[in-house]
Amino acid sequence: MDGCQTSEEGIPSPTCIIHAPEIHTDKSEADILEAQPKSSVSQVGNHLAEVAVQVASPTSSINKDANEDGPESSALPTGNSEESTKFTLYQKMTFVSITIATMADVAAFSIMTPFFPIEAESRGLSSVTVGFTFSIFSLASFVFSPIFGKILPVVGARFMFLAGSFVSAGCCILFGFIDEMPTQTTFTVFCMVLRVVTGIGASASMTASAAIIAYAFPNNVGLASSVNEMVAGVGSMIGPAIGGLLYSAGGFKLPFIVLGAVDLCFIPINYFLMPEHGTKNEKMGSLFQLLRIPAIWVTMTCVLQGSIAMGFLDPTLSPHLKELKLNIDEIGFVFLGFSALYAISAVIFGYLADKTKATRIIMVLGSYGGCISFLLLGPSPYLNLPFTTPIVLSSLVIGCSTIAMIVMPSFLDMLNSAKWYGIPNDLGLNGMISGLWTGVFSLGSMLGPIIGGSLKQGFGFGKATTLLAGSCIFTMLVLCFFGVWEYRCGKGKRIPSSRRISLHSSTDEERSPLLDGINT
Questions:
Q1: Is the dihedral of CA 283, 287, 290, 295 positive or negative?
Q2: What sequence ranges are listed for the domain Major facilitator superfamily (MFS) profile (predicted)?
């Protein structure tokens, strides 16, 4: 090309590069090779191979982009290297803060389970009203979690996390004084109001904690989330036990005051322990952009299925176990074992999701296992199996693992799908996904007991679990067919425009061999 100066090594000058025609990735390989001298054919081949690898394997480019996120990216494990197993001080401080607060928050939420229904019925509340008092907590979380996920980058993750814990702890203490309400109406109204506000605070803290984990552990999202889920499970196990003991020792007020005060005490500790996440320049994530991705809807269906399956057992499992002649202590031990096995399984499958990146396969296997578990739990009247303790307990063991397989990889799958479609992996994206995930899980937690109680009353426990097994098979088929469609018509056939733009833009070092051949 006229006016294009080259050095002795044959490298074009900056002027030549600036005025060179733009190279697009849709240019045929044959055209490029014809224009390129034989001496640089190997360089062209290497460049085209890099582009082909990026198109065929979006996961690799996702990992490569991970270390560009956030102001603390230097402290995080790099995405284009081997996954780091040694965590930094920043990550350790963050994780300790989140797990401490999570355990305290969940324990405070769950202390009322063993004694509140008795107290409420003594004040004249019906069982329906008592059930709604429990469910309205999840309803508030479902409504507000996506909102908090949207505004999280602006208000700050640490502030939202601590503020949510403060609101929840304060409401826990106030709930201890509702027994002094003079009338049944005021008692009912204050119960509902405090549970709603507690749900709002819980949704803020849980949304922020999930976003912080994804932001601080870009290469270990599944493992970190699953360990935090295990800690939440421990809190849900010890909360009712502590609540029952304190209620027996000091009456209605003592459990709420003690655990609420403990939760408050952890807030200043976490304030100094937890680093700040995000900056004032962080942008809010786009909910509309996220919901345009088909994979997000499919994964949210799996989250809903898993949370409904867990909530389904709350009002139905105890009466079912009583038919096996189990006493109250043995039934309590079954629930304790169920929670413990779920927590352990969550860590295992969260770790596997991180290592293998096979989130969809794990969720498909979990849905299939869930179907088997609920067919045996009834047992289904169509199987003609005997109703025995070994069969029922075996089904619960299978159910613990399979529900964890459905739920735990889902957050990582949503995050990877959003990143593959070109959404920047920043605090805005993490906040939106954590808000959606928490909201959908809360919706399932609210619907699960309602669906379980209604189906058991209308069809009996055996047919109710059969219907739930059918929903697991439906979820599995949706995952399978969507995976085929996504490969044949989605990721396997076309590149989203956002990623196509990123492929067109390359550095001078990558483009110079091509430009050198075209210009000579």
A1: positive
A2: 94-488
